[in-house]
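Bug #2210: token dump truncated for TLC domain-containing protein?
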Amino acid sequence: MEDSIKNMIVVGVISWSTAFLVSRRIFQKRSYDFSNRIISTIHAILAVTLASISVQDWKCPMCPVASKSSLKQMEVLAVSLSYLIYDLVCCLFGERMNMDTTIHHLVSIVGIGAGLCYQKSGSEMVACLWITEMSSPFLHLRELLKELGYKDTPLNLAADLLFAAIFTFARMVAGPYLTYVTVTANNPFLVKAMASGLQLVSAFWFFKILRMVKYKLTKKRPTSINGTKHVNGTK
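Reproduced locally. Full output below:
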């Protein structure tokens, strides 16, 4: 791994941590998780933007396969690797830490780290970053809306459905294809393991999201009539 990339990762971890502390200062009345999700949303938007800029040819976004990573691709990956390290530590002190989130972060950190060390598979890993972060802003938006008092509102339902639709397309349509391309190409073992591991976690989350959507669409939501809350379907 090049020294400049190592420096970017260190500076990135410090920068994300500082941004979180600033967010905590600004949103003092909000929860720890609220501030963390603000930073996560910023990263998701930044990651998708940088990944899009680094694409060499939009006629074949994942080309060239199993090739030497460009400097731009490694810089994009370094930004996200630094975020994942920050977020893994941050989640240890919050309420978002669970087994599947931990596995997702560890697999991503090891996979991206391996790709940066080998300086290979940049196209595949940037494409993976683009796919996995595409739905993240809506994931965090739905939780932010709840804390802002918009739980069980049409706005929150719209965020839920947008997140579910984008996640399904990205992780269960584009994701399996990218996994196949990565695994069948001459990529390092750890990069192949990352692709397979992330796809398994995505499939697990997909079934959880299906249950969430079913619950949301069948749940009776409260409405307000003359200042009095009622539940749809009841008098």
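Output looks complete on our side. The radius of gyration is 19 Å. Marking as cannot-reproduce; reopen if the truncation happens again.
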